[in-house]
Amino acid sequence: MTDFSSLLQPDRGQPAHLIQTVRGGGFDEWLAGQPERVRATVAAARFRGKAGEFALLPGGKPEEWSAVVGLPDTPTPWDLAGAVARLPEGQFRLADGDPGAATLGWLLAHHRFDRYRRAPEPIPQRVLLVPDAAGIDGAVRLAGAVALVRDLVDTPAADMGPAELAAAAERVANDGGANFAVVQGDALAEGYPMIHAVGRAATRDRAPRLIELTWGDPAHPRVAIVGKGVCFDSGGLDIKPASGMLLMKKDMGGAAHALALAGLVMQARLPVRLHLLIPAVENAISADAFRPGDVLRSRQGLSVEIGNTDAEGRLVLADALTRAAEETPALLIDFATLTGAARVALGPDLPALFASDDALADDLLRAGTATGDPLWRLPLWAGYRDMLKSTLADINNSGEGGLAGAITAALFLKEFVPADMPWAHLDTFAWRPADRPGRPRGGDALGLRAAWAMLETRFGGGVTVTH
Predict the structure, then answer these.
(1) pTM for this prediction
(2) How far apart are CA 423 and CA 401, in angstroms?
(3) What does DSSP say about strands 66-71 and 295-297: parallel, antiparallel, or unpaired?
(4) pLDDT, tens digit, for every residue of 159-212?
(5) Which helix (H) or strand (E) holds 10?
(6) Which of 382, 380, 319 has its CA nearest to residue 352?
(7) Within a 13 Å sphere around the CA of 453, how many CA atoms are in the beta-carbon half?
(8) Which of 222, 228, 273, 314 is labelled catalytic?
């Protein structure tokens, strides 16, 4: 993984090239204060200060060159990311001071997923000098968490099955000094019957697992984080078309988010009792696959009629949410690449947020806006619960009629969370369909930074955690 720690350094006046910035309508004022050589260069480069524009500027001596970057009206974490790709290796500082949240884009512009490249191109190291040395560690940790999500999601399913996902979780647990446990294969049948049912068709080396991590002082508020870990989704016997399977390596994106968030909690030593749960399965096809029309018994005790084997993520999440709720957490949050309906409604950039608690929803929405990691709340509309009715069982896993699919999926999960427990469900895409500065096409963290900012605000305070 990229060593982000070397890319941000405290500014102690060491030699560096300046990066000037022009935001919004400030171009004319900026240009008026520049020497003739700079004005000529800017004119030749057709730089007008628009967002995303970039130009190298001559100095009084050859080694005194600088750069200028056009920025959008409203600051974002990605303001500097586009400039990074155009800068040579070296040290830089902003002419107008602290880059703030834009350090995230600076760092992540250096990240590449090149595991499968025979001869990956080296990434020039551009070091940014920052006046606020106290913020460096947090920025580096956040960039590392985003990079972890990207790397896990980008890894093909052949190399990121339930066993490999468990290994990744164990590394995070070991790094944080957490307790780690796994229940796998047929041992799931008794306590986690729906996780077992969804994953049992896979080969023995890709057997289903319930991954569990605990960390922190038991006296501190308990925070449970659950992530959907469907390492590949064929759709099961209700098989997806080829086009629908093409991106299904990313169906463990919720688990990647949950794991990265747990890592942030431990690295920051947040004073909470952390409980991470990841149901890791492959929704495969074999003679042992669960079938449309089957009735499964859940860990909670509700019986579930299978209306569609391609609605498997909510099944494995239900057993994991039940386990999390048994410990009565002060807050329960889950991440899942759960429904195409959420993407139809909100597109790739906006995770759908469902919450049983208005204060929790408000905190997440506020954190998403503040961090440039926006969420959009959708309703847990009780009137649509009838779409999940079953004539055989307590509930059906697939809503009738094909309408409100993101809402009915969230309502299904709600059945497995106590009514008085603050719970948030993020239906995230975990994928970037097109390149943007600092955000290449591929796996991406969407909702992670919002969730982390919310946890920091609620539970932060600089208390040292012992465990």
Answers:
(1) 0.96
(2) 27
(3) unpaired
(4) 999 999 999 999 999 999 999 999 999 999 999 999 999 999 999 999 999 999
(5) strand 8-10
(6) 380
(7) 21
(8) 314
Domain spans in the chain, listed from the N-terminal domain onward: 4-131, 140-459
Q: How many CA atoms lie within 13 A of 162 on its CB side?
A: 31
> Of 240, 297, 366, 377, which is the active-site residue?
240
> Among 3.40.50.300, 3.40.220.10, 3.30.1280.10, 3.30.565.10, what is the CATH number of 4-131?
3.40.220.10
Is 50 noted as a catalytic residue in this protein?
no
Distance CA 252, CA 280 (A): 8
In the CATH scheme, what architecture does the domain 140-459 have? 3-Layer(aba) Sandwich (3.40)
Q: Name the residue type at position 231.
A: C
Question: In the predicted model, is pLDDT for residue 60 greater than 60?
Answer: yes
pLDDT tens-digit readout, 5-34: 999 999 999 999 999 999 988 999 999 999
User: With contact defined as beta carbons under 8 Å apart, do 247 and 155 qualify?
Assistant: no
pLDDT in tens, 350-366: 999 999 999 999 999 99
Is position 240 annotated as part of the catalytic site?
yes
Q: Residue 182: beta bridge partners?
A: 211
